[in-house]
Structure formats: structure tokens, C-alpha cells
């Protein structure tokens, strides 16, 4: 399947919404955007791979899928989505009027939230943008917030001009989401992207992202194998010191940095208190909220 990693992330959000009454991250649109047929295809694909995830597993197909989603797929996707949107909505209260999603994938923020005076810019590869817009038309989805789709390659700084062409203004406070990007860009390209953002970000504007920590776990290693099987090889891991130096070089100050234990406590604890099964943030992944100074 094309855009497999983005589709699996969308599936994880859809499954979590469909199978719970309390949510770590509530995305009631993900399932509609993915479509029933593709949802079932991914569910079957994952269920058939239970021996890869849990070799000793015994149980029903439904139980197998829940084990895979709750332990392998959802923790990364739900945690970072909740982290990003909490900071975004707080930044909106502080005057942010531009939300830029780098490698937007099948993000559904603009379909779920009606935020006055907020422009949403979704940047991704042309084939990803084309597919998403087709799905919107096919499933009758429309944006509640002003949304601009921008096909581009983030490894090429031409994305800056395209962003301005679609109405981005340098003198307005902005918030950027770079979720999942640090895994798939090599360190030089990720630094170039941060540099490019710094060039057009107004002082006080912010970014957030997750990154793979150098001391990764078996869970992270399995995600790397899944990404490789989908033709999307993970290319980099970082220490905290590397991330801090990189951000500082381009004028960003880290305001919040969470490891897996801190993420679990802040974003998963309430859900876990209400569920029979528990979920925790993945080991080997850290989360950053940084502000341009």
C-alpha cells in the first residue's frame, strides 16, 4: 500500500477512537478519512503479523489486534498527537494564527477543530496531498478551519516559497508540527529543515517534534523494521545534547522535553486509570516543544 506509514498512523487513531469511550487522543475523523475497506485491510495485515510482535501470543484475532495496536502502534501516534495539539491550542491562546504541518500525512485537525483566525498549512509530498484530497472528496469531508494543501519536498527549501505563495506571513506568530519527521530525514536534512523554519519564523513562534533516542528499545526496533518493510527507512537517532545544540544553533529554546516516563504520566495516566488494560509511551522516543527566541 502506498503511504503505508501514514495509513498505519491513521488506522491507529481510528482504532483507538472506535474501541474506547475514554481517549488519550480523540480523533473521530481518522476512520472516515481512511475508509472502511482500507481500515479492514490494515487490521487483517496487523493481525496476521502477531507472531512478529508477540511470538508467544495465544488468543482470538480481536485480542491479537488489540495487543498489536495498544502496545506497538498507538502509543507513539496517540502520545505525540496529544502533545502537539495541546501545545498548539495553548499557542493559539497566546496569539498564534498560523499552523504548519510538516509531513502532514492523514492529519485531521482541520476537519475536527473550528479555530477562528487560524490558518492551517499542510505540507507533504505531491502524491500524499493528492491522495488526501481525493479521500476528502470521496468521503465527503470538509475543513472547519482555513486549510491550504501544499505539495512539496521538505528536503528542498523551495517549500518556503510555496508556503508564502499560499498566504503564510513571516510577521505572524506560527506553530509548526514536525511529528515523525526526525526518523525519516538524515541529520543533515533535518538540520536544514530546522534552519529553514528558523528563517521564516517570527520571534515567539514555536515548533514541536518527537525524535528517536539513541538508547532505543525493542519496541522502537520493531517500528524501524515495519517502516523498512514499507520502504520508509528510519535514518537517524539523537542524544538530548545533539537536539539541544541543533535547536540552539538556529535560535530555538527548549521549553518542554519529555521522555517516555514523563509522557506516560502526563498523557496516558488518566486513560490508564479508567481502563482494564494499560498503555504507555514508547521507550526510546523523546518529545520536544521549542520556541524561537
Give an overview of the whole structure.
The chain has a domain at 75-219 and 233-292: Vaccinia Virus protein VP39 (Rossmann fold, 3-Layer(aba) Sandwich). Helices cover 51% and strands 15% of the residues. The protein has helices at 4-18, 30-34, 36-47, 50-53, 61-93, 109-112, 126-139, 158-165, 181-184, 187-200, 218-229, 240-249, 260-274; strands at residues 98-102, 119-124, 146-151, 174-177, 206-212, 252-258, 285-292. A seven-stranded mixed beta sheet has the order 3-2-1-4-5-7-6, with helices on both faces. Helix 3 crosses helix 5. The radius of gyration is 18 Å and the shape is globular. The termini are far apart. The model has no long low-confidence stretch (mean pLDDT 92).
Task: Give keywords.
7-stranded mixed beta sheet, alpha/beta, Rossmann fold, 15% strand, 293 residues
Amino acid at each position: 500500500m502506498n503511504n503505508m506509514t501514514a495509513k498505519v498512523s491513521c488506522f491507529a487513531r481510528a482504532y483507538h477512537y472506535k474501541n474506547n469511550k475514554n481517549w488519550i487522543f480523540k480523533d473521530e475523523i481518522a476512520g472516515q478519512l481512511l475508509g472502511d475497506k482500507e481500515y479492514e485491510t490494515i487490521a487483517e495485515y496487523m493481525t496476521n503479523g502477531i507472531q512478529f510482535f508477540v511470538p508467544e501470543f495465544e488468543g482470538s484475532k480481536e485480542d491479537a489486534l488489540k495487543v498489536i495496536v495498544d502496545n506497538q502502534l498507538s502509543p507513539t501516534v496517540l502520545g505525540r498527537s496529544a502533545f502537539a495539539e495541546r501545545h498548539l491550542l495553548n499557542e493559539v491562546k497566546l496569539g498564534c494564527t498560523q499552523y504548519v504541518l510538516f509531513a502532514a500525512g492523514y492529519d485531521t485537525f482541520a476537519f475536527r477543530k473550528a479555530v477562528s483566525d487560524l490558518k492551517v498549512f499542510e505540507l507533504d509530498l505531491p502524491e500524499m496531498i493528492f491522495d488526501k484530497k481525493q479521500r476528502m472528496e470521496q468521503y465527503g469531508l470538509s475543513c472547519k478551519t482555513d486549510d491550504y494543501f501544499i505539495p512539496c519536498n521538505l528536503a528542498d527549501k523551495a517549500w518556503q516559497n510555496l508556503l508564502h505563495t499560499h498566504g503564510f506571513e513571516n510577521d505572524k506568530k506560527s506553530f509548526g508540527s514536525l511529528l515523525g519527521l526526525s526518523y525519516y530525514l538524515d541529520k543533515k536534512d533535518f538540520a536544514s529543515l530546522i534552519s529553514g523554519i528558523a528563517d521564516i519564523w517570527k520571534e515567539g513562534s514555536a515548533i514541536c517534534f518527537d525524535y528517536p533516542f539513541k538508547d532505543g528499545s525493542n519496541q522502537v526496533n520493531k517500528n524501524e523494521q515495519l517502516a523498512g518493510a514499507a520502504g520508509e527507512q528510519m535514518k537517524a537517532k539523537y542524544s538530548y545534547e545533539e537536539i539541544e545544540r541543533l535547536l540552539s544553533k538556529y535560535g530555538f529554546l527548549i521549553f518542554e522535553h519529555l521522555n517516555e516516563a514523563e509522557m506516560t504520566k502526563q498523557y496516558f495516566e488518566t486513560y490508564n486509570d479508567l481502563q482494564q488494560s494499560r498503555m504507555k509511551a514508547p521507550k526510546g522516543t523523546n518529545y520536544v516543544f521549542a520556541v524561537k527566541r
